Amino acid sequence: MPGSPTPSERERKDAEARAREKEEQAQLPYKWTQTIKDLDIAVPVAGNLRGKDIEVVMTKTKLKVAVKGQEAVIDGDLTHAILVDESAWTLEPLKAGKEINIHLDKSNKMEWWDAITTNAPYKIDTSKVVPENSKLGDLDGETRGMVEKMMYDQRQKEMGKPTSEEEGKMEMLKKFQAQHPEMDFSGAKIS
Question: Is the pLDDT at 117 greater than 90, yes or no?
Answer without folding.
Answer: yes
